[in-house]
Every structure is written in C-alpha cells, then in structure tokens.
Design brief:
single chain; mainly alpha; 434 Repressor (Amino-terminal Domain); 2 domains; extended
Amino acid sequence: MSKKKVIEQYTRDEIAEAFVFPVKLSPKQQLEANIQLNNHRANRRAAMTGPEQLNLKLIQLKFRLEDYIDGENYNPQYTFGYFLELYLQLTDRKKKEFAADIQIHETQLSQILKNRREPNESLMIRLELHSNNTIPAIDWFKLLEKEKGHQLKTDKTLRDKESQYVKHSLQLV
C-alpha cells in the first residue's frame, strides 16, 4: 500500500499505533537505561566548550526570567537588580568590568543592582546586545514593568499623597 493511501485510509493515531512499538522495560532494564542516559549526559556536558556552557546558562536565565514575568505572583526578591546580578555571575564579570563593557559608570551600575536607581531603555538595549540577543530588551523591560505594576497596586502612601489632587471623583453605584 502506498504512503498516500495509508494516510487517506487511517488516522494519525492508527498509523502511529501500527508502526511505533511501545517499549516496556523491567525495573532492572529501566535502571540500566537511566544509568546509560546519565553517563551520556555527563560525557556530553564534559565535552562542552566554555561558550556552549555560557549559552546554555544564559538560556536558562532567560527562561527563568520569562517564567517569572509571565507568572501571576509578584516576588519582591526578584527585582531588576536581582536578575542583573545573576547575569553578572553567569557571565563571570566583575561590576567594574561589566560597567566598562556596556559603557556606564560603575556607580550607576551599583545603584541599579541595589535597586536604588531605575534602569533606562538604553541600558536594556545594551543588555540585549551584550548577551548577543539571548535575553531580549523587552524581557528586561517587562520585568521592570512588573515591579512598577505591583507598586501601583499596593503603595497606599502614594495613593494617599495623590488623593489630595483629585476633587469630585465619580460617584458610581
């Protein structure tokens, strides 16, 4: 029977069931397979070059950052400075060296890391370029926006301060 006729006559599940044989391993065979897989992974990891390892670490940081951004919960520990500090650790850069890499003053970098200064858009672009586009500027921006959004929702003192400037607010039922 031709491939075309098989596709027309059967569903994908039926085709898969007919041609893909499930493998059932005994517990001993499963253990042996797991050991072989772990050994292969360890050998592959050992054979990785420095740039390959760095790339994987940066991708891992990117996924961690995106998971946090897309998540519902806000964690005050996960600030822009926190993720930037992780980035510095992964790239094995000292603050002074990194500040020179992206051409900002070391004091400015230190203030951003300690969340005493807000990063601007050009810094986020520089971070994207520094990571060779692995971590996009938009991810850094969304992280900052998540922090600001939480502050707007929860900062009662800001609401109290700004309420003095609002007169005749709408009365809704």
